[in-house]
């Protein structure tokens, strides 16, 4: 069974480089790609496009959740290219992927800190010596094909960001610009965005939220004249996708501090254990996190597909939008949801102590699990002051603006199987998968 491995040689405190050499011994140099050395013409999508039509090829991502997200985003580009070559992508806004829904399934070797996606599908939370070389290859061959939803995250700032501010936005959220006028094809005019165009309903919703005339009283933008009118032709947009979770509040503040500490002192982050120690040291930032009720407006789609406001609890200090059940290094906060149900779970958290106690005790005390405020396919947040956010562990400081989270696509992923062989067959599901 053909296997293509992508290794982040910078992951695992230098372990990635050793694993890359070992895998090349078993798979051959051309089948093991170093993500740390990617360049134009040698990006993951440039490699994977050659195997897109082969239903037997499998992918191994060696790294953390960020590495997995990179490969999954690359697959979006692969399928868009394949469908355009077939004459399907140029005239259709919805890319139906049922023909390729089980092609290029992804397995994971965990080399990151949290490794939540790896935990979700049975690949473990940390690297073990038995995973090296032939061991992981055999596990991939035995694994079972299942599916994972990915979600589109669209950010529209109220005020245009300057070059310095743009550098603080995660690279997985690419910048583009879109006009706020509608064309006859019912889509938002958008010539540079890498994702598919925004639908009219999404564009109108973003505009109406930006024109919200009840800003937070301390917001700098509340003292400015609202410029979000129909006369403004161009809007700055940051657009990308994620597969694990989005959060806003105290946990994102901790991730933000951790991220900047790692950039400033990379020598402190030579192992997963050291990473977790530094993370714990950032707890005081969580304790100082503000209440969100007057700072964020939350809207979700109800069962009828209507966008309705979700009341933020008085003491809420974090808002989580969960696609998978594994959160913050393998903890489960709720029993609801599935990675492939086209729904996310919205959870409100009061403080870090509530989150820690739930994570620690819920396996033996299920009643401590968080109540899910909503299960939905569309979440919109209107932020009225600077707040910390993150998607799959990639943090940034969000100013006044709108964040929209909507279903994006469904990817094939491999679930580890213990003690039995996979037949290597692809699934036979008939439903269409769509890139929105």
From TrEMBL:
<dbReference type="GO" id="GO:0004143">
    <property type="term" value="F:ATP-dependent diacylglycerol kinase activity"/>
</dbReference>
<feature type="domain" description="DAGKc">
    <location>
        <begin position="1"/>
        <end position="157"/>
    </location>
</feature>
<keyword id="KW-0067">ATP-binding</keyword>
<comment type="similarity">
    <text>Belongs to the eukaryotic diacylglycerol kinase family.</text>
</comment>
<dbReference type="Pfam" id="PF00609">
    <property type="entry name" value="DAGK_acc"/>
</dbReference>
<protein>
    <recommendedName>
        <fullName>Diacylglycerol kinase</fullName>
        <ecNumber>2.7.1.107</ecNumber>
    </recommendedName>
</protein>
<dbReference type="InterPro" id="IPR001206">
    <property type="entry name" value="Diacylglycerol_kinase_cat_dom"/>
</dbReference>
<keyword id="KW-0547">Nucleotide-binding</keyword>
<keyword id="KW-0418">Kinase</keyword>
<dbReference type="InterPro" id="IPR000756">
    <property type="entry name" value="Diacylglycerol_kin_accessory"/>
</dbReference>
<dbReference type="Pfam" id="PF00781">
    <property type="entry name" value="DAGK_cat"/>
</dbReference>
<dbReference type="InterPro" id="IPR016064">
    <property type="entry name" value="NAD/diacylglycerol_kinase_sf"/>
</dbReference>
<keyword id="KW-0808">Transferase</keyword>
<dbReference type="GO" id="GO:0005524">
    <property type="term" value="F:ATP binding"/>
</dbReference>
<dbReference type="InterPro" id="IPR037607">
    <property type="entry name" value="DGK"/>
</dbReference>
<dbReference type="InterPro" id="IPR017438">
    <property type="entry name" value="ATP-NAD_kinase_N"/>
</dbReference>
